[in-house]
Amino acid sequence: MPTPTPNQERTAMLSGDYNSAEYSAEYKLLYLQGLVADKAYEAITEFLEKQSEYEIANLLESFPTQNRLLIWAQVPEHIKGEVLAELDVDTRQPLMENISSQEISLFTQDLDAQDISEILDTVTESVRTSVMATLDEETRVQVNKLDTYADWEVGSYMDPDIIQIRDDIYLADVQEWLRENDDLLDDESQELLVVDQSQQLLGLLSLVDLIKHKQNTLVSDLIDTAITINDRLDIQDAAAIFRSEDIRFAPVINSHGELVGQLNGEDIMEIIQDDVDSTMKNLAGVSQDEELFAPILTSAKSRSVWLGINLCTALLAAAVIGQFEEVLAQVVALAILMPVVASMGGIAGSQTLTVVIRGMAMGQIGGSNRVWLLNKELWVGAINGIIWAIIMAFIAQLWFHDIKISAVIGFAIAINMTAANVSGISIPLMLKRMNIDPALSASVILTTVTDIVGFMSFLGLASVLIL
Q1: Distance of CA 387 to the CA centre of its chain
Q2: How many helices (H) and strands (E) does the chain have?
Q3: In DSSP terms, which residues pair with 234 in a beta bridge?
Q4: ∠ CA 45-46-48 to the nearest 5 degrees?
Q5: Is the pLDDT score of 182 beyond 60?
Q6: Strand, coil or helix: what is 162?
């Protein structure tokens, strides 16, 4: 079906025929905003019934807290559990404050262990105990297993409910078992996990081999090698393995080689997206916990810390400028041109910093290539510095008709842009060696370096050449 045009979307929104998946998230949001403003509760329920749990979660996260509560009350009961599992913790918690343990038990009765564990992370211990008592034994064991892992470990993200078969049975037995349990496989299943009697993972059996070979063939004769992930591995390292090996899923084993779960590609995609969001917030000096529609005071508080740090670095740069009061007092043109030097250095450094931090996140920077990159950025900074130094010197000459001022601005830009590029790669590398997240503080340090180098070179050269 062709994608609707904006006019078609508006027509659908006004008519109420606005539930098909092909309509954009933004227009669904506009439609729901209209329903909320009109307090059309029945229409909200009808609209939400035709959305997936992912769409409902996204819509809830697109409203302030007060409106979220109103919308949440209209979410169909049969899908509330799935929606809760998809929400961010900060969005989920206020919605669950007035939900009883009996209601949570109803929401979670058809969920898998991963989703139940996610939801129970935001409830009190007494509510958790009550809900856990209502789960069947297998699910309860799986949830408890997930809760033994730290937030950063693969085990906390894996799916403990896996399809596994023994290596000493025939293909006919596997086929019969799958026919009797036709809900085990989904549309994306391509392999079955093969284990021995002691739960040691041996490898994979592809569904193609299961169908293609004779029924009296032993599973052990058709086992393929599996790329495995340790349950205690850092989830970021696991994401790097998924990218480098181009795999959809990986069996998760413990330190004894026993199969304990499965890590799926969709979980890795969530990790990568969360990491991207976290990096973007850190680069901008925003708390990782701050969401778009967080309360005013919460957002103000989370941003104040980095604003305070930035003020300190700005005062440091101002102190450097203060050392050159005499030359600034005599040559007004220097005060006019001084921001240009800092700005050009800041932009050049930020370009390098962004590329380097992305490379680090992708696991592309390490070993000998760090020296190559440092050398590359030195030359990139020098080349761009010289080009833009000449251009700015020419502009300054046309503006002030003073060859000394033109030379000062030209040399200062060349020096600062070169230093900025080198800093853009060296600062995150140093922070990583110190076990500090480069995205968290590299931009603040870089700004300080480019300001100080820029002002020192500009005003220092002016003191030598002009006074």
Answers
A1: 37
A2: 21, 6
A3: 153
A4: 65
A5: yes
A6: coil
> Which tokens is 184 given?
């085990």
Contacts of 224 (CB under 8 A, 6+ apart): 191, 203, 204, 205, 206, 209
Q: Which two tokens stand for residue 352?
A: 């390098």
Out of 173-182, 407-416, 418-427, which region has the weakest mean confidence (pLDDT)? 173-182
pLDDT at residue 289 in the model? 55
Name 230's bridge partners: 253
What does the alpha-carbon distance between residue 391 and residue 297 come to, in Å, rounded to a whole number?
Answer: 46
3-state SS of 174-220 is HHHHHHHCCCCCCCCCCEEEEECCCCEEEEEEEHHHHHHCCCCCEHH
The phi, psi pair for 424, rounded to 5°, reads -60, -25
Q: Which of 379, 349, 307, 325 is nearest to 454 (CA)?
A: 349
* 387 closest CA partner among 419, 404, 403, 410: 410
What DSSP letter does each residue of 91-136 carry, written as one string?
HHHHHHTT--HHHHHHHHTTS-HHHHHHHHTTS-HHHHHHHHHHS-
Cα–Cα nearest to 440, from 236, 312, 283? 283
Strands ordered across the beta sheet of 201-206 = 164-166, 191-195, 201-206
1-48 pLDDT, tens digit each: 344 444 444 455 444 455 544 457 788 888 999 999 998 999 999 999
Q: Note the pLDDT tens digit of each residue in 72-107.
A: 999 998 899 999 988 888 888 888 888 888 888 888
Contact of 261 with 193, CB cutoff 8 Å: no
CB 30 within 8 A of CB 13: yes
Three-class SS state of 256: coil
Q: What is the per-residue pLDDT for 295?
A: 67
Query: What letter represents residue 123's amino acid?
Result: V
Residue 459: count of CB within 10 angstroms of its CB: 25
